[in-house]
Design a protein that fits this description.
Elements lengths: L1 H19 L10 H32 L7 H11 L5 E3 L19 E6 L7 E6 L5 H19 L4 H8 L2 E5 L2 E6 L3 H11 L2
Antiparallel strand pairs: 1-2, 2-3, 3-5, 4-5
Helix pairs in contact: 1-2, 3-6, 4-5
């Protein structure tokens, strides 16, 4: 933008000097001098129009669609909701918790309670190229297994599992086991628009 403005100023100066240094017989206000100045004004308008078009085009290309990262959603949930000592589950250990084949490079994030004394979990996955039915089935199987773990042991944790949140939207799936599912759902909706 600055280069275009500098070029416009340079063009104006060059045209102004050529108008003044032309034929000495031309009196000020004569039609020849007027034509030169009009040409320079036209050049500035043309450059200004090109600059605006360039700005419009660059703003279109500079605003790529934002890709939502599953880790960002999971971190936002964990920051907003009180969760006890959460531990991240990496791709190498996901099979221990979910009966789900996650391909290499698939964006997902999973956190579980590190102590094992609480049922809290956060799982978010980008579903591109995956079967949403398989993902939901794996989540439901995980929840049912955890219910058996907590049944008769800790009623509060069992209630969290019994009321877990499962959400799907715009190519993302999330399930959470927390004490504040409405906050988690709001975060999911905010990130996945």
């Amino acid at each position: 933008m600055k280069k275009t403005l500098a070029a416009a100023c340079a063009a104006l100066c060059a045209l102004t000097f050529s108008a003044c240094s032309g034929n000495n017989d031309t009196e000020p206000g004569a039609s020849g001098a007027y034509t030169e100045i009009s040409a320079s004004e036209e050049a500035i308008e043309t450059l200004a129009g090109a600059e605006q078009t360039e700005t419009d085009a660059s703003s279109e290309t500079e605003a790529p669609s934002e890709k939502v990262l599953c880790g960002d959603i999971a971190n936002a949930v964990m920051a907003a909701v009180e969760l006890p000592s959460m531990a991240e589950v990496g791709a190498d250990r996901i099979g221990m918790y979910l009966d789900l084949a996650i391909p290499d490079g698939c964006d997902f994030s999973m956190y579980i309670c590190g102590s094992g004394g609480f049922a809290d979990e956060v799982f978010v996955i980008n579903t591109d190229g995956l079967s949403i039915d398989d993902i939901k089935a794996a989540a439901e199987k995980r929840i049912e297994t955890r219910k058996k773990d907590f049944e008769g042991y800790n009623p509060d944790e069992f209630d969290k599992l019994d009321n877990y949140l499962s959400a799907e939207k715009n190519g993302y799936y999330m399930y959470v086991v927390t004490c504040d599912n409405s906050a988690c759902e709001s975060i999911f909706d905010e990130y996945v628009k």
